[in-house]
Every structure is written in structure tokens, then in C-alpha cells.
Amino acid sequence: MQSFVYHMPVKVYFEEIGVKKYLPKEMGKYGKNVMIVYGGGSVKKNGILDEVRKTLEECGKTVFEFGGVASSPSYEKILEGIAMYKKENIDLMIALGGGSVVDSTKIMAAGAEIDGDIWEEEMVNHHIPEKMGKYAVILTISGAGAEMDHLGACTNEKTHEKKTFVGPYADFVIEDPTYLMSVPLRIFTPGVYDSLSHCMETYFGRGTNVWDEINETLMKNIIRNGRALMENPGSKEIRSNLMWDSSLIQSFSFYTGNPGDFQAHGIENMLAAYTHATHGLQLAILQPVYYDHIVEAGAEMFARFAVNVMEVDPQGKKQLEIAKEGIVRLREFIRCLGLPSSFSEAGIEVSEETASAVASTCNISTTNARQLSRDEVRDIILECR
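Below the sequence we write its predicted C-alpha cells.
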């Protein structure tokens, strides 16, 4: 087990009618100007934006809206948000949405209190601002777990780079499972897989860790509830369990003392700079193919995953056979969620030139079962077409 320092300062209110109960309680800590950041407009249609805005106004706040954050956030949009923050002297931002909205708000907060450009500050100068803006999260779709951490990713459209920034932790998070009930399955299920992928990325790093057995339980819970969701999509209990699952993995408990294997994540991040596709959906396509490439080198841990998580019967089977059967069952779960198994099935166009560009620029993991060459990264992407 590696050495680590663990600190998790995020306060979570998990309750139905949580906005009306807890938002007024928190608002006394902040100044007058509040900026709500949201995505494509679903929170307008389902009334959640109006509810949040009304609650804030009843608290005496002046509310500014910043909508239009895409599912794959762009740096240009984030710069617009930072400009509004500065112009209106915002005291608190509220990320009203899921992972993309939270990531964008987090990066806005990172750049809100500096004079320069946050991309240049963090990506070029490798300097993390000491002073950052404040933000909170009202979660309306789960999966990414971004509400629990201090990292946010966005795409620079000009350079075709998707980078991860260091921002502040949320001052507080409100998770109301009733907000998930209007989310269609086609939007919700990529988040379910996103949660599972975070667990697997931690689990398949080199070495063993006290958290591995806890991680196995969480993965089984995600899979069980994911399957149940497809049978009963209107269950608030199922959706609330999946909501908390996604937050738990990003509390970083599972990462302590564990190097993890984030190779698929690194490939997807760079690919998204070209495709702008949903993060969890692309991971569902990439991850099983990547695992096919490294399963022989990591047969022991993949076999453990197969038996303890995917419930493969090991009787009379060799270790590698068990390991590969676990990946087969992972693919079956992805299909159960209604997610695509190839880019073409998802309507995503990936050219050979794009595959080569991603392979030449993505991070290469050194903590996985076997380090990939850049040519192999390219091959994996092309196999996914």
C-alpha cells in the first residue's frame, strides 16, 4: 500500500426536497450575487431551475443564469462563464446538473480570481491559483461523481486537447433523488457505466489494497442496480442507490494508497476532444477492448474481478479463461444498459487520422498490468470502430 494523505471536505445533503430544506440554510454564508450554471435546458423544462431560482430569491439573492454547457465542456464556454463571474461580482456559483456542468463550474472557480488565463496558468505554467471562486452543486444526474472531487476536465477546441484542471472542492452538495426521475434511460445509463468505470480504473492498478474488497462490493451494487434499473426505470430507490454509488467512488477513499489504471480514461479524454461524445458512453466502448489487450498480463486480478464481481464460476477453469469470461460478462452488462459496443453503433465517426492523433498525445499509464505502446493505443481505437 502506497503512502498518502487523505482529506475529504465535501459536505453532502442527500434528501428529497433537499433544495428547499438545505439551500436557505447555506445561503447565509455568502454574498448577494449567485450564478446558476446549467446545461442544455432540461432543468428549465422539468422545473428544477425555477425551483432553485425561487429559493435563492426568497433568500434575498440576486440570481444570474449561465446556461448552455455541453456534455463535453469546451474551454471557450468556460471563459464566458469566468467573464460573467467577474463582471457581475459573483459570490457563489451553483452547478445545477451533472458531471459536465460540475466540471465546468469547477474550472470557472479555478480561474475566477486570477488576472490571467487559467489554461496558461495551470497547463503551461503548472501553477495552481491560491485564491479561487466558491461553488456548490445541486445534482440532477449522477454518474461522474464530479461533485465530490476537485478535478475538472474540458476541451480546448482550438488545439484539440482535453485537459484536467485542479479547482476547489464544492462548498456543499445537494443530492435529491427525485431530480433523477425525469432523466431518460438513454441519458442516465452512460452515467451508470461511468461510475463502474471509475471503480474498475482504481481496482485494476498494480498491487492489492484494503479498499479492493470494498470496491468489489460497490461494483456489485452498481451492476445489480444497473440491471434492476432496466427492468424498473421508474424506481426512485434504484436511482437513489446509483446516485450515491457514483459519489462514493469519487470520494477518493478508494484511490488512497492505490495507483490505479486510468489508461482507458486517458484515451477517452483525448478522443473526446475530437468526437465531443458522452464520456461514459465512449468509455463503455473503449474499456472492454483495452482489457482484451492487457488481460493476459493481469490475469490474476482480472480473474478475481470475474469471480468476486461478475460471479463467474471458476470450477474447472484456468485462470486466464476465468479472467476472459469476466470481460465477456462486462460486455453483457454494457449491452444490458443499452449502450453501444462500437463507435459506428453510437454514430461516432473516428478516422485513422484521429486515432493516430489521440495515440500520439494521450497519457500512457505505467501503473496498469502492462504498458501499452502508442501503436497499440491506435490499434485499440481502430478496433472500437
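The mean pLDDT is 94.
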